[in-house]
Structure formats: structure tokens, C-alpha cells
DNA sequence: CGTACACCCTTTTTT
DNA sequence: AGGGTGTACG
């Protein structure tokens, strides 16, 4: 049973086993937060005998809930995890509203309005009421009012002070009416209405024994209320969070909730996790320096468990284009010089905003670096996908007139603006929904003021027929396959592929591939895009009736809801080695061996439109703490838009930069590479591998640009590996290489480095498994796995003490007090109890760069080397604890375990043949009813559709790479035309304009 | 009346 | 790349 506690450090154990009924776990980056939370769930189940269906576990992203479920299935087994009420706040609330919404007068089968829907509704209102307010501002304001639980009735009662406020309240009110007429709930409504429900009918959660909340610092007011309502009966709550990682204030998250919770529950216990198992010491130090500029924040220290490692880089480049070039080149340099230690999938580029990806994507495309973009564009927002989803919505949810209007003339049915206007006003006057009105008109029971044209009438008939027969189909299908069957039916009836051909003649294959992906997502009930898995049911409660609907229809609404609630799709892309490009927000909770954070200049970070500078700083902190071994920040000195000079991010003042960063990429000498390998817990690469990599590079150093970011005087304009090298280039390349070789003969290089290792060894008097020179790496590799003590010794070679015992003083589990006093206590105790271990917090001077930059091979080969141990390491003594085999290994650094991308096995691409298109003349619609034979065909095609490439593969900008990848991908013609060329065109256009 | 085409704008972060 | 607007044509 207590295998649950295996691999946890003492602080984590304290948290997991805490008898406290109200528990806060404060978990800084890389401290094993998810591990602790999952273990806590398992512990509560086993030690308190709670039934899994009586435990609610809330996360913020679908990704996080999926990961938790996966981990729990390993930990508790027996499919128990599938019974847990686990999901995002929004999805859990939706579940309760589906089951019990009737108790608060919610109409059955409500749909979810995503932000696009909301915006569209608001735009319409503003137009109708002729108001001056900006639609986006209105939406934002409505959302923040709702997040604080302020309804529009409350605002209406108050006498509004300004005409502007009055205007807003009118929009708010009209918005609420519009949503309710369409039987839609927006994101905030899901929370708000669920809180309503639980307030009025607490018996709905009368079974709940324990409530757990992840990323608590990101909860808003309503979510806080919900947590308490969920836990109303048994008052057992565990939250995990970190105020420093609160980056959702713009969405009304309130860090205050931490103290609010402590006030509400006087017996709150707090446990803090301090050991960082993710990042190198120097990365951690730099991140701490950044976050500590926030003086309002209680100080708190992180304890690195890894060596100092390689100093982070802050790189200046001339322009964003140069930045992108440098970045791709640096990725190549990293891979080449670390001798197969790093793969593409070990790299992440983290951006403040998704739009910054353009230049990087295009550069990677050019250089043949495979990548995937996360965040930003949603798969489900693509035009062709949206059309089909809107049809599904129209079928599931015909009250929603906006959706109806969106597809009523797609593909073109001769139903133009004027006809739509006639229909909507007609419906309004008859006081019925558009759908009912249209039906009456089409079936001749009613007519519009002005008669419709013959063509429009026919089109309307077709449209109606399609939706009606689709409904019929849906009723016939009583299981989870409904969404997919329905999609297939609609695609067939629309002759959708024909439509795509006409609508997007250059791009049809690409878009069709997206449709196939959509089908795959819809068909795969066990792993649909967005379904968090597990069953969607709430446990039955005596005396309470759950609403039951048609199972097929429920499967459909669930599918649509999951799409609305999912940020990005699951794509089992993991078998492909790809660099990840992501927004910082979407990267939360993840880690990579190497992280790039471009565009760290004022206006981007902090963003010019951001209201809360502290939150922007935390964002940078989150980005930096994603890195395990190497961290690169960079920015262009000139803004690419207007050519203005940029100012280095104000979060990176000179005093921090001077101490914590180098100006150019590190030299990957043996020592640095080994340090990286050790942090990643990977075998150290062989010297030969490292040497091999050098030959493919234009230069082994990051010297194509000067440290100030200008193109290097001697360098040739463009290094483009995909083309043949121009003669001039080859010339200078050769020259530069010769210089390299003269100055740094390979034979000397590593001997020097090894001799340093030897010195290091001697002064620490450790590890006899390491010997001298070239044999070091190989011998290490041979022995590495076999002994645990060896691992410890590696870290000592890196020159940093391991801090296993550092957190022992908090093991007792602190109770009461505010967070700040709590932090205060910790801080005080620490400085009193263990001064020598503060080594890592001291500025790393350039002389200690890369641990020992001045002792690099260059100097060593000239006998300049003074093999002294850097001052801040000289008082190191090996602590006996380090030799204990029981060293905790929380959060092992296996990056792929953290990425949603690796979640699933990868089926082989197998172009399906659903494309059985009918040639039906010019009309896209096949008005024939489907026959049994067709049913069979769809059944057959399902088989082949199960194996389909992931959607991320079809990200438009990813396309060029697929082509480069060649025959293995199986699709050679995918969307190249659209992918990059559009951008290149635009860019050259823009340039011409400027010139 | 409906459509096709050319031209403007824009893009912080997300459930 | 989409969305919105404006103009010319069937």
C-alpha cells in the first residue's frame, strides 16, 4: 500500500500523508507537484477508504487532468481512476449541470459558447443597439464580472454612474438574453450556474469526501466558491499551487485565494516543497533573481538538486529575423556538439504570444528543423473544421440561430444576405426560433413577407432536409459512435470534399487531411481530442434524480463540449522528433532540456498591453523554470515592425544579467556536455560522438553574430544548409575552421578538460569510478547504471552539493499563519541552520562561467590554466548523506512523461478512402437518402480511419517539413502551397512597401 | 439578389 | 489567414 510513498522526499511525504483536513501544498517549479498530488489522491483512497467516485479533483487544463488520470491509473490501478470525478473545473461543472441542471431550471441539452461565439453574439448586439463600445472589451468585462460572481441584474439595480457603464450593462443584459435564447452557456456560466446549483441543492455533492485542486493560484472567485461547495459535506480539501506561477490574472485568477482559504479554514495546514528536481543550479539562480525583483512577494528559496550547470545565455541579435536564424543555428550547434545527447524533441521555444512564432517557424522550415506549434491557433477553429462542427451543433442544438446562419449557405445554396434577413425578421415577428420558422417556411406552413426566390427556396429545402435527416441518423445511433457517424453522414451529403476542391482549389488536400483528422478524433471514443477520459458519469445519490437523455445525443453534446473546452488537441506526435514551439502559458507544468525564450524586450515581456507587470514577470519566471539544462533568452535590438530600437526587458536589469547570463552560446566542451547529461540523467556521450558533430557546423562557437548582435564582420551573409554552399562561403568557412583547429587542437582540447576533471576529483577526493582522459566517458557509461553511488559522484564532479536534507526542517508540516509568516519562518530557520549551502545563490561571476569558463580548453592548451577550485566551491565537503543510496528521485527528468504529446501510441499513417465522392453535377448536395449499402461503406471506412496522422501534423506551417521528411510520411502533397509561400509573399510585399 | 474579387484590418495570454 | 468592406458582374 505504501508503494504510494516510494520515490517521494520527506516534504512530499509529509504533504501526502498529512492528517490535516485542509491542506495547502506550496510547490515551486520542478518540485514534484503533480507527483505529490497524485500520491495524495491515492493515499486518501487507500487510507481513508474513500470511494473514487466520492473524490473530486480539479485541474485547469485538460492536459493536466489527462496526465493525472494516467499517473493515477499506474498508482492505484483497477480502473479505479476512471471513477474519480477528475477534470477541469469547467468540465466537472458541465457534468453536474447535465445531470442536475433541471433543478435550477436549466434547459436540457444546453450547448457551450466558446469565446468566438460569445464575441459574435456581442458584436451583433452592439450593432443592433448601435453602441460605441468595443466588442472585445465588452466580452472581457462581462467575463470578469461573471468570474467575480456579479450578475447583470446586480449591475442593473445599481444606478450606473457613467453612460459608458450604462452602455455596458445593456450589452451584458442583451448578451445574457441572447445566450439563454440559444440555450447556450459560456465558460463563465458553467462555473456560475454550477455554483448556483450546489448552493441551492447541496445534496448533489453530498457524497463527496475529498476535494483536490491543482494550480490553485489560478483559481478565480467562483472557482474558489465551487471548491468550498464541493467540499461542503466533509471539509477535506487539498490544494497545490505556487503564487510565483500565477499567470492567469487576466482571466480573473486571484492569488488572494491562498490567504482567503486560510482565513476561511482556521485549521489550514501548509506544506512547502523546496527541492527542485528539474533545473540546473545556474538556471534556478537566474530565475530566482528575476522573480525576486517583485518585492511584494514573500521570499522563498529553491534548492537545486542538480549541479550548477551551464550558465544561461542572454543573446542580442539585430532583428527578429536574425534572432530566428541564430536560434535555429544554435539548436543545430547544441545537437552537434553534444554528440547525440540531445534530440529535437528536447528543445522548446517559449513565446509570450503565439504570433511571435512566424519568423521562427519559417526559419525552421527553411533549415529543415521539424517542429510543432502548441497554443495559439486552434485546430477546431480552422474554417473547414468549423463548418462541420457547426453542422453538428445545428443538429444537436437548433435553438442556436447564429450557428444556423453560419452554415445555412455553406456550401452555397443561393441563400444570400437578403434571404437570411427575411428569415430572421420573420422569425422575430412570429416570436419563434429561427429554426422553427425556417422549418415552417420550407414546409409551406408559413411564408416570409416577401416571397423567396425559387433558388433560395430550393436551397432552404435542401438545408432543412439535411439537418432533419441528420437528426434522424442521430436518433438511430445510441452510443459513443454518434459524433463520428453523424460527421460521416454530413460529409457525404454535402459532398464536402467536392466543396473543398472548389472553395480551396490550392489547398484541398491539406484541408481534407484535416477533416480526416477530425473524423479520427470523433471516432476514437477512448481518446477523443478533448475527452479527459474516464466515464463522464456522476455517482448516483439517493433521492436525487439525474437527467437522462438519448445516449447518442449525449455523446454528441459531450463531444462538442469537449471541443469547446479544449485548448489544443491531443496528438500522438511523440514518435516524431520535433522542436516544440509554444506559448509560455501553454507550457506551464512542462519541462524541456533546452529552452529558448525569444523576444525578451519591453513591449513583449512585459507586454505593452499588460496591466499587471508582476504577472508578466512571473510569466518570464515560468518560462525560465521550464528549462532543465540549458536556457537561452534572446531579443532583437530593433523592432521588426517599425525598426525602432528595442529595450531589453526591464525584468533583466544589468546587475542580474552580468551575474547570471553570458552573452553568447556556451562552448560545449566535455565538461559542459557531461553536466548536461548528468542533469538529464542520460548516459554521457562518447567523445568521438562529440567530435563527429563538429564537422557539420560552420563554426563550433556561437560567433556568427557578435555579442552585440551584429552580423559578424568575417561571416558570410547567409548560411543555408539546404542549398549548395556558394564558393565564397566555403572559403570563409574553411578559413574559420582552420583557425579553430590551430587554436584548439582536438587532441589538446579534451586532455586539458580531462586534466581539469582530475583536479576536480582530487580536490573533492571522490569517485574512483572515474579515471583520466578519454576513458572517462566510456567507463562512466559502462558503470553508470549499475551503482547508485556513482550517480552521486557525478553530481559532485559538477561541483555542487546535493541538498537532500535541506528541507528536513519543514517535515513537521507547518500549520496556521499566513503564507508570508510561513515563508518567513522557513527563511529564518534556513539561514540559521545551514549557511554553507547557500553557495548556489551567490552570483556566478564570469570567471565561473560554465562552471569554469576560464578553464576552457582554449586556455588550458596554452598552459594558462591554474587548476584552482573556484572560490565558491572551495568549502565543499562531501556530506555523508550524498552517499546514501536512498536519495530521493522525485520528478525524474524524463521530459516526455510531461508532454501531452507523448501520451499515445502512434498508428501508422494510412490514407483512408472515405473519399467516395459522388459526382452530382454542380450541386454539392446529394439529396438522396442513404441506403444500407452506404451504411456498410461507412462502417468499413471506419476501420481505415482509425489510423490517421495527428492533427498537429497538419498545422499549416508544419507542412513544408512534412514534405522534406519525404516518403515516410506517406503524404507528399500536403498543403505546401499554402503553408509558407503565403508568408513569404506577404513578407516581401511588406518589405517592398518599406523600401 | 447573389456572387466573385480586390482591398483593408488585425494577432496577449485561455477555460 | 480570416474577417470585414466595397465594387463590378450575372
From TrEMBL:
Pfam families: UvrD-helicase (PF00580), UvrD_C (PF13361). GO terms for molecular function: 3'-5' DNA helicase activity; ATP binding; DNA binding; hydrolase activity. Its EC number is 5.6.2.4. GO terms for biological process: DNA damage tolerance; mitotic recombination-dependent replication fork processing; recombinational repair. ATP binds at residues 27-34. GO terms for cellular component: nucleus. This is DNA 3'-5' helicase. The lineage of its organism: Eukaryota, Fungi, Dikarya, Ascomycota, Pezizomycotina.
